[in-house]
Amino acid sequence: MKIIKTMFIVLIVSQANSALAASCEQTIEGNDMLQFNLKEIVVSSTCSEVTINLKHTGQLASNIMGHNWVLSKTEDFMPLALAGGSAGPSENYVPSNDPRVIAYTVIIGGGEETSVTFSLASLGGGEDYTFFCSFPGHYAIMKGVFRVIN
Questions:
Q1: Which helix (H) or strand (E) holds 42?
Q2: 37 and 143 Cβ atoms separated by less than 8 Å
Q3: Which of 6, 28, 43, 82 is the most buried (most CB within 10 A)?
Q4: End-to-end alpha carbon distance in the chain
Q5: For residues 125-149, b (16+ Cβ closer than 10 Å) or e, as one string?
Q6: Which domains does the chain have, with CATH numbers?
Q7: How far out from the chain centre does Cα 82 lie?
Q8: pLDDT beyond 50 at 8
Q9: Are 22 and 148 in contact (CB under 8 A)?
């Protein structure tokens, strides 16, 4: 009986993960405590494009506790995050026309929402990708893994 219950739980979790990955639209939340509610975003390679919805669930203004969502290859994450500070707030802390940037949203403050839609065509299934907030200093803890699965 215990084995059957365990198998049932594994099946349910597996189906939930598959359903989540099958969605070509994902929502992530950032708050005033420098936290994203997700550490991993998984999308299916069957999606031609994906939409990331970013919600700021905090109350602080964008110039104080602003958040965005930036995607890059993991190897580019730290150099890109550091370059974001130099880009400044008028550029959403994202260097203009930087080929290391796969996708990004604008900076938002508490109670605001934004989204970005981008193609998965150039993302390889075997590559490592990192998403992060490029507001100065936030990238140290506001980051996660972005995976494309078959």
A1: strand 40-44
A2: no
A3: 43
A4: 33
A5: eeeebbbbbbbbebbeebbbebebe
A6: 24-149 (2.60.40.420)
A7: 18
A8: no
A9: no
- Cα angle value 18/24/114 (rounded, 5°): 130
User: Distance between CA atoms of 74 and 145, rounded to whole angstroms?
Assistant: 8
**Which pair of tokens denotes residue 44?**
């299916």
Instruction: Centre a 10 Å sphere on the Cβ of residue 33 and count the other Cβ atoms it contains.
Output: 9
CB hemisphere CA count around 54 (13 angstroms): 27
Structure tokens belonging to residue 8: 């049932």
User: What's at 124, amino acid-wise?
Assistant: G
Closest CA to 144 of 48, 44, 30: 30
70 backbone φψ class: left, alpha, beta (φ>0; ψ -120 to 50): beta
Residue pair 34/146 in contact by the 8 Å Cβ criterion: no
Question: How far from the centroid of its chain's Cα atoms is residue 64's Cα?
Answer: 21
pLDDT in tens, 38-64: 999 999 999 999 999 999 999 999 999
All residues at 6 or more sequence positions from 57 whose CB lies less than 8 Å from its CB, including other chains:
29, 30, 31, 110
**Model confidence at 3: pLDDT above 70:** no
Secondary structure of residue 50 in the 3-state scheme: strand
